Structures are given as C-alpha cells and as structure tokens.
Amino acid sequence: MARRDFIWGVATASYQIEGAVRADGRLPSIWDTFSAEPGKVLHSDTGEVACDHYHRWESDVDLIASLGVDAYRLSIAWPRVMDEKGRPNRRGLDFYKRLLDRLAAKGLRRFVTLYHWDLPQHLEDRGGWLNRDTAYRFSEYVDLVSREYEGQVDAWATLNEPWCSAYLGYGIGHHAPGLANIRYATQAMHHLLLGHGLALPALERNDPRAKRGIVANVGRGTTDRNTPADCEAARLYELQHNDWVLGPLLKGEYPAGLFDTLWPGSLPLVLPGDMEIIGRPIDFLGINYYFRSNLRSDGAHGFQDVPLEGVERTQMGWEVYPQGLQDLLVGFKARYANLPPIYITENGIASDDQVVDGEVDDSQRISFLNRHFAAVANAMDAGVDVRGYYVWSLMDNFEWAFGYERRFGLVHINYATQARTLKRSAKALRAFLAEREKT
Ligand code: IFM
Questions:
Q1: How far is CA 270 from CA 8, 250, 275, in A?
Q2: Tens digit of pLDDT per residue, the chain (439 long)?
Q3: Can you name the CATH fold of 7-227+239-290+306-438?
C-alpha cells in the first residue's frame, strides 16, 4: 500500500503499559480495583508495574521512532490528570505534556484516546457509567485535557471500544467494574455514547485543528449453516457488536432488533435530545478488528458462538480471518451513508513469544499483519476511505482479564527486567516502511 499520505502507526493504552499507579497523585481506577480482586485476572496480574512506561517513556519514544512509523496512538489516564473535585493534577498533566513533546520532536504524529477504560474509581463509586452524571464528568475531563494540550495532538478519539466498556464491564462482568446485567450494559452504553457526544464541542472549541472521532471494535459474524435461522443469528451478532455502537453514532438511532428481538426489555433511558448529541458529526471513525465468529441460532431469538474446527487461531483462540476486515469495511460503507474517513486503530495478534538467543521469531504475526494490510488495501480499492493503520500493540502489555500471559507486542517485554526486544515482526514492519520511503 504505497499511498503517500496513508499513516502507519503503533498503539498502546495507559493502564496496559504505564504502571506507577500511585505516582504523582494518580487516583485509583476501576482496573486497579478489579484486578486486585482474586479470580478476576489470570494469575492475579495487575497494572501496578506493567511495562513501567511511566518511567521509561523517553526510551520508549525512541523505540517507537526507531520503527519508522508515522504515528503513535496512546491514551491518557483520566485518574492521573484530574482530582476527585475535578481540579487538574499538574504532575499527571506534565507527564503527558513531556511525552507529547518528545513524540513531536521525533516527528511522530500523536493520536490520543481520551478514555481507554481506566475510569476513576471515585466515579464508579457513584454508579460509574450507569450514572448519567459520568457523561458530564467525562466532558469536563475532555475540556481540561484538550485545553491543556491544544496544538499538540493530531487526532483525538473520545472513547476506545465502548462496546467492551458497556458489555464486558457492565453486561457480563469480564471487565471492570465486573457487573453482569444486560440492562446495565445498555444503559452504560448510552451514557458512554452521550459522554462522547458531549465532549465533541469542547474538542472543537479548544483544539479546532485536531481531528475528532471515536474508536469502535467490530466483529465479523458468519455462519457455517445456510439456514435462515442461522443467517439471522449471524446478522444479530453483527448488530449487537457493530451497529449497537455505529447506529447511534452515524444514524442517530439504536438499530431495530436490539431492544426487542435480542434483548427484550432492556431499552436504556434516553432523554429528549440525547440521540442528536450522540450523532454529532465526527471527522473520523477508528476501527479495531481482530477476528470472525461462527454463529448459529440458539433456537430462540439469539445466537450462539460455535467455534469452527481446523482454522488458524491466535494465542487468544481468535480465528485469523483477514477477509472479515475487508467485508466489514465495505459493508459499513454500504450501510452508513455518512461514514467518515476510517483509521484502523487496532489490529494485531497475541502469540506465545519467547526470546531465544536474543531473537523473537513471531512469524505468525508477520503473516497476520501482511494479510490484514492486503485486506485494507482491497477495501480501499473498493472505495472505502481508509486513512491509516495502527498495529496493536507497540509492546507486550497487560491484556486485561488475561494479564501478561497474552503477548500482543511488536516488542517483547521481559517483565522481570523490563528489557525490550524487537521481535522479528517489528523488524519486518520497519523494513516494509523503509521500502515505502523509496517509492
Ligand atoms: O488489548 C486490547 C485493547 O486494549 C483494546 N482492544 C483489543 C486489544 C486486544 O484484546
């Protein structure tokens, strides 16, 4: 893909890499609380130290620059930069200021996610995303941060993957805060999206030259049985995973079928004017894609996930299916008339990587990335406006409920020594990007 202005980057998120959870006035987040609870995270891992990026940020920026990428996608930890009363925490703010400055000095563009799941615990204590007030607190936080870093950010994403926050966090309890009720999930989703919409005017006012958008995780659902009920199951899967988020954002409405067929009785409380706020225009949509699921009817009005046999899978157990990314992008363009320009804000693979004689042979990752680059190129050839691609992730990190066991990085982390080792995939990416410079 030698398209001149296409942006290539790598991505991370605050809680997954920073560590230093009590440094410089940082407040506890819901992930500190959740991971401290026995049985919630594999091997009882927590983000307490993670990749120690909070102390190693300078050399980590050098590492990013050494890959030859154009951009870095990072997230800001809300509990680091604001106190309980909503006042700025200068020491936390200064950390990101230094980081953004150094990225700029290295010629890297800065894509900043404002919320990648680390909600301040004191807000969860008042109901978290179930409390409408959290959406307003979020817009105040965004106002503070965008005033602070005006002119230092190329693109702001309000939320990362509201589906995960709402469904995994409040619907089934696999993520913080660990609640399990579908009615909670739909209400949390509504408040997350409301927070996104409320934050947009602050971004526009405070940093008008930066792009504004949001990041959604999307999933491809197909079925191996061609019956009408099974096809409907696959459709409902995509409705639940993709259109639950994209519908409100791009059409100003929740998709038909969600609150009647799939989750009867789980309509969130929506106040007059909310959908207009949520549907405010955005400059870009970030898409995170990882895998496909095989669906069959559950015999009622829903779907069941029936894993296919004999397909290639990653360390997460996720099927490798690049065609799904192409299909989804083309499908979104057909379905959403006002689809904004797209960035692939995450795509990547976990593998059980080991350092042997100083080398990490992660050939499955190289192959995975190449096949997904091709899928994006095909979608672009089919007319989808994709502007960039970020590999998840720069380095191995805290993979939420799976702790440190699952390794998504281009760079291997030895958690005992914090040594960083470029995997073969990092070197392949560097060579690929260097080749692009020549064309
Ligand atoms: O690690 C996560 C990331 O935080 C959000 N998107 C999916 C990744 C892999 O599970």
A1: 38, 17, 8
A2: 546 799 999 999 999 999 999 999 999 999 999 999 999 999 999 999 999 999 999 999 999 999 999 999 999 999 999 999 999 999 999 999 999 999 999 999 999 999 999 999 999 999 999 999 999 999 999 999 999 999 999 999 999 999 999 999 999 999 999 999 999 999 999 999 999 999 999 999 999 999 999 999 999 999 999 999 999 999 999 999 999 999 999 999 999 999 999 999 999 999 999 999 999 999 999 999 999 999 999 999 899 999 999 999 999 999 999 999 999 999 999 999 999 999 999 999 999 999 999 999 999 999 999 999 999 999 999 999 999 999 999 999 999 999 999 999 999 999 999 999 999 999 999 999 999 877 6
A3: TIM Barrel (3.20.20)
Contact, 353 vs 362, CB < 8 A? yes
Say how many C-beta atoms besides its own lie within 10 A of residue 273's C-beta: 10
Nearest CA to ligand 1 atom 2: 399
Q: Enumerate the β-bridge partners of residue 346.
A: 288
346 within ligand 1 shell (Cβ under 6 A): yes
Q: Quick one: which atom of ligand 1 is closest to the CA of 402?
A: 10
To test ligand 1's pocket by mutation, which of 35, 161, 344 has the most ligand atoms within 8 angstroms of CB?
161
User: 349 CA distance to ligand 1 centroid (A)?
Assistant: 10
Closest CA relative to residue 426, chosen from 372, 359, 377: 359
Helix (H/G/I), strand (E/B), else coil: 388: strand
Rounded to whole angstroms, the Cα distance separating 46 from 280 reads: 36
Q: Quick check: CB of 392 below 6 Å from ligand 1?
A: yes
Q: Is 83 helix (H, G, I), strand (E, B) or coil?
A: coil
Cα separation, 259 vs 250, in Å, equals 18
Single-letter residue type at 432: F
Provide the residue ranges of all domains of the chain, joining segments of one domain with +: 7-227+239-290+306-438
| Ligand 1 lined by 139 (C-beta under 6 Å) | no
pTM passes above 0.90: yes
Q: Quick check: helix, strand or coil at residue 222?
A: strand
Distance 303 CA to ligand 1 centre (A): 24
399 lines ligand 1 (CB under 6 A): yes
Asked if 385 and 3 count as a contact pair (C-beta separation under 8 A), the reply is no
Instruction: Give the number of other CB atoms < 10 A from CB of residue 97.
Output: 14
Residue 93 and residue 81 in contact, taking contact as beta carbons nearer than 8 Å:
yes
